Write a sequence for this structure.
């Protein structure tokens, strides 16, 4: 497809290609269960969110950061009364998260394989480097992606660096993801195309308002299976 | 220098450009101090090393992994009797490591600046993505490096991927670093040049025997300040 509008199509990974946030939700529930003798569930959740938000600048994204924030919150909430056994359970939970099966979202396998036949595909994701790499391996999708970038944050500046590094023209770049804040807004700012495919739940630190639906080069779809048809329409200038 | 033997010169970062291992040694000493009421120092150190080694496959490299391994070891060694206050101290220590001043090794500032005038320079490092990026920023050296790669491991395969990605010919590639295992041996296997600049202490999981001194394309130097002279000799075919 030499005359395509798109030079490269990039995907977010967590909750765009495979389930992720629900693993964290499961872990948070376990965390609340563990501390429920000390505080009420709502307060425990709020404090964990707060610790995570505060630690993002130090720890960055990913499971190891989440684990350290869980442990910190547990110590603080119990005023140091948390037991070693409970800490051990949190470490155990962390390792379960790192080993969890990679479950693709509906429509992902066939859509990615179909798109790879027509476009160079790329992954741009944040999180723990090793964890993201092994998840891609375990997903069975690695063969379809020519480029993989694990970045420490998804800002306009970090996307600019990635595009420059791969000689990609922003106006010919399409990003597909489930986070308005991380996958959509920075790309639209750069003059690229963005498709928002919402996941059923969003981490509080990723929440943001979607752009207005009449924003040029911005699209929202119910699931990834609808992407090829949309791309055909865009390519045809419909 | 269009006729140079070297297309790119790459540096390891931790303990090659700036001090790193001594921060961990300091943290390990603090860790031993904290647990000294439970066990003898030698045994505490051995168990921490063992936990780190076992967790590398799950957690990868870097400070957050080290922190989780410290906490795990503390819980195990005390059979769960570790207090929340002590865990909090380990978290505090972790944040201190992440914020620690980046101190360049001797000769680094002037050598890097000198080499950058003649060669495209690159960093290839492993560890936490965010931590390595911010250390490079804080080091004041970022301007001299055209490319930065944070990788999850430094094996022959991971170097091959990096070189392919940047269209670098292995035979025209030079890597400089303080780890025989991670910076030297994989590069020599690929047919590249490698300069070993030992740091005064080596992490147990990086220990390996150096190649014989007559190995082609392998050099060992006492400090980074000796690199420009060696390169001049190599370029002159001396």
């Amino acid at each position: 497809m030499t005359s395509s509008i798109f030079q490269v199509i990039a995907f977010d990974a967590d909750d765009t290609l495979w389930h992720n946030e629900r693993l964290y939700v499961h872990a948070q529930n376990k965390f609340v269960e563990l501390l429920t003798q000390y505080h009420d569930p709502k307060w425990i959740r709020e404090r964990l969110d707060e610790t995570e938000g505060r630690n993002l600048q130090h720890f960055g994204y990913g499971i190891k950061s989440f684990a350290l924030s869980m442990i910190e919150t547990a110590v603080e909430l119990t005023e140091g009364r948390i037991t070693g056994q409970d800490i051990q359970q949190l470490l155990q939970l962390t390792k379960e998260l790192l080993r969890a099966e990679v479950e693709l979202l509906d429509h992902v396998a066939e859509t990615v394989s179909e798109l790879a036949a027509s476009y160079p595909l790329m992954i741009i994701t944040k999180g723990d480097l090793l964890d993201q790499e092994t998840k891609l391996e375990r997903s069975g999708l690695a063969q379809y992606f020519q480029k993989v970038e694990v970045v420490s944050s998804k800002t306009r500046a970090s996307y600019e660096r990635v595009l420059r590094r791969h000689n990609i023209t922003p106006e010919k770049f399409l990003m597909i993801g489930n986070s308005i804040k991380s996958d959509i807004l920075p790309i639209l700012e750069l003059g690229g195309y963005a498709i928002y495919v919402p996941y059923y739940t969003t981490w509080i630190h990723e929440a943001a308002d979607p752009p207005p639906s009449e924003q040029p080069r911005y699209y929202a779809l119910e699931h990834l299976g609808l992407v090829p048809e949309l791309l055909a329409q865009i390519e045809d200038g419909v």
